[in-house]
Specification:
Structural class: alpha+beta
Order of helices and strands: HEEEEEEEEE
Low-confidence stretches: none
Radius of gyration: 24 Å
Shape: elongated
Mean pLDDT: 84
Largest sheet: 5 strands, antiparallel
Strand order of the largest sheet: 2-5-7-8-9
Helix content: 25-40%
């Protein structure tokens, strides 16, 4: 008597059941890994834009700023959509024309950046010597009103990353201190 080749329906359903259970266990870890990767990408884009702005200010002996907005600096401490590096003109506050725009870096759609400095400004301004106009400040990367990463800029223009603290703001309705 010959044995039939192949698998029975019960065996196939059992294998599909085990595969479904394993997939349901792995999905949360995969989602978390993807979110961490997007946050790391956004931090690296932000660091790249800051280093580019500082380097351009020093190498070209110009005042260079960085701000956030979709098509122009949005005059807000909450930066959505993209980061814009621009040559700052006297009076400043954003790119005077498309010619003064040096670089545009997109931000992932679900993340935004909150800028908080110790002087009233909606952008980070680098002077020709590489220092920041004003004093220290913090760029907080946020998702859904929660701080996920923080970058601190000191008065000399250097940037360091740190874990967000309770003092880091992400609430869109929060007022400046």
């Amino acid at each position: 008597m010959t044995r039939p080749l192949g698998y029975s329906l019960v065996e196939l359903l059992f294998v599909l059941l085990i595969a479904g259970i394993l997939l349901s266990l792995a999905t949360p870890a995969l989602v978390s890994t993807v979110q961490d990767s997007r946050e790391t990408q956004a931090v690296n884009q932000l660091l790249g834009a800051l280093h580019y702005a500082r380097g351009t200010a020093v190498m070209e002996r110009k005042v260079v700023g960085i701000c956030g907005g979709r098509s122009a600096c949005n005059r807000s401490n909450h930066w959505h959509g993209q980061l814009m590096v621009y040559e700052d003109s006297p009076g400043g506050g954003g790119p005077a024309s498309d010619d003064s725009l040096l670089r545009v870096t997109p931000l992932p759609g679900d993340l935004y950046v909150h800028w908080r400095g110790f002087r009233p400004s909606h952008s980070v301004i680098y002077k020709p010597d590489g220092t920041v106009a004003g004093t220290n400040g913090t760029l907080t990367l946020c998702r859904d009103g929660i701080a996920v990463r923080a970058l601190v800029i000191n008065v000399s223009g250097r940037v360091r990353t740190r874990t967000p603290s309770d003092d880091d703001r992400c609430n869109l309705s929060a007022t400046r201190r």
